[in-house]
Each structure stands twice: as structure tokens, then as C-alpha cells.
Specification:
Elements: E1 2-7, E2 16-20, E3 32-38, H1 41-51, E4 55-57, H2 59-62
Parallel strand pairs: 2-4
Antiparallel strand pairs: 1-2, 1-3
């Protein structure tokens, strides 16, 4: 299980970034929504889609993506 967050503010593309909790690029907690302790990035993505129509993987987290 890993902890996941999503940025409240969208990027220029309109997408909100999904992050692992240990990401170096995380915003302050006030700018994030906690998605929870989730078993996989795919599951975190599904939770994020409940909050925002457009979501994207954080580029810094992408290398840690374990499906």
C-alpha cells in the first residue's frame, strides 16, 4: 500500500497531477487532496477520476509507477 495525493490546482493542460506521498514535487498539503492508502497507482488513478475529470501522472512519480 502507498499513500497518494492529487493536486487541487490543474496544470496548464487542465489535468490534475497524481503523486505518491514521498514525491519531491509535492505542493503544500493545502494544495492537495489526499486520495488514501491505496494498493496500486491504477487504483489511485480511479479515485482521482472521482474528483476530477482530467488527471495525469506526476512526471517525477512516473518512474515509480508499478501498475
Amino acid at each position: 500500500m502507498a499513500e497518494f495525493y492529487i493536486e487541487k490546482q490543474p496544470q496548464n493542460t487542465g489535468a490534475h497531477l497524481v503523486h505518491f506521498s514521498h514525491c519531491q514535487g509535492l505542493s503544500e498539503l493545502s494544495g492537495l487532496n489526499y486520495l488514501g492508502s491505496i494498493a496500486s497507482y491504477d487504483s489511485a488513478w480511479k479515485e482521482a477520476k472521482k474528483l476530477y475529470h482530467e488527471v495525469s501522472a506526476c512526471p517525477a512519480c512516473a518512474g515509480q509507477y508499478a501498475g
